[in-house]
Specification:
CATH superfamily: MFS general substrate transporter like domains
Shape: globular
CATH class: Mainly Alpha
CATH topology: Growth Hormone, Chain: A
Protein name: MFS transporter
CATH architecture: Up-down Bundle
Subcellular location: Membrane
Main location: membrane
Radius of gyration: 21 Å
Keywords: Membrane, Transmembrane, Transmembrane helix, Transport
Distance between the termini: 17 Å
Largest sheet: none
Strand content: under 5%
Pfam family, one: MFS_1
Number of helices: 21
Length: 435
Amino acid sequence: MADNVPTAPIRVDEVSSLGQRWYVLIIMMLVYTISIADRYVLSTLLGPISEELQLSDTETAWLGLPLALFYVVMGIPLSWLCDRTNRRNLLAASVAVWSFMTAITGYTRGYFDLLLARVGVGIGEAGGTPACNSIIADYFPADRRSMAMTVFALGAPIGAWLGSDIAGLVSTVHGWRAAFLVLGVPGIILALIIMVTIKEPKRGRLDAVQEEKAPKIMETLKFLWSQKSAVHAMTGSGLSAFWGWGLMWFTPLFLQRTYGMDEGEAGGMLGWIYLIGGIGASLLTAWVVARPRYTDPRKIARLLAVVTALATIPSFLAYYTRDLGFAQFMWWLFIPAIYFYIGPAFALCQNLAAPRMRSMAVAISLLVANVLNLIIAPAIVGGLSDFFDATGGGNADSLRLAQLILAPTGLWAAWHYWRAEKYIIEDQKRAIGYV
């Protein structure tokens, strides 16, 4: 790392036009949309899949394991490659692979066939988000990355809506296999668009700190571990995923068991909350963090802590009540919060890592988040639900109790965001050369 570095960023207009920046950002957002949709469709279809394959709640929970496991396992090597090679090409290949494997899921005929198809989805998705983050950081300077990453994060609610409402509707009319086909094909087209219309930007062109070669994995881990605010920010975002996405994984099945809905009705109800509430929260976040006062990263960390702590309350009440109207109102308060944190948390991660560490830093952050929300949280909820179910065969009350045990962990995430605020100024200067 250079010792004598400038204290101001490079002018962004010198390296790209406003139209170029926003075109790239929108394409990256669409990539994230497809990623979330292809991931969320399985949660929406847990009911008909588990019914057809005669699965327990624990076995149903493990349907998410192949994607999560291979997402985690492949995330580090693909991010290592991303920090050293053409990110555009890697991104296009990743999108094509996971979209093809999503479509293939529609042709599976058994439990293990389905698990194998989700392995392919996980491998492909491992190369997507780190590459998107790294490319966006070379189009937007540090003081605009929270805004840019929040726009990027719009892909989460849109993708969740596609994977819930649209997938649920298709499944109700044509069967659950058709939903995977409908969501898989658009990603293959998007991969071609990326190859044809996007060029690889010069790495680190908007940062004051410049590096000639990418550091080794252990050097990156050592640097990030020395950044106390990065440790707290990554832990906070991982626990936010554990709390929020962990609760939502079983929520469609919770609605079907507790309130007698089918997958189309459950997906339709949640889908509109994802779409309207999630997009609204993301746009509001983008507007807030674009204000001049939020160029101070301490205020970003504080905002994340406060919102996450407050949202923990409706996350508990939604599963405690037996009134569908009140539960729906609580989800309208809770679900937007699980989109609120994504953009600012990604931006903190970008600004606390040196330019040639960004893909790896994002991969490490995603590793923590996805182990927690795709492996540990479903296993805990599914295992507890089976433990509390004395009758066997799926029980609404046992699933409710399992969800209630997970809900308070939002406060744990909020604590880590609060602690990140203390160290973040000096850590950001050390990583990119300016605040």
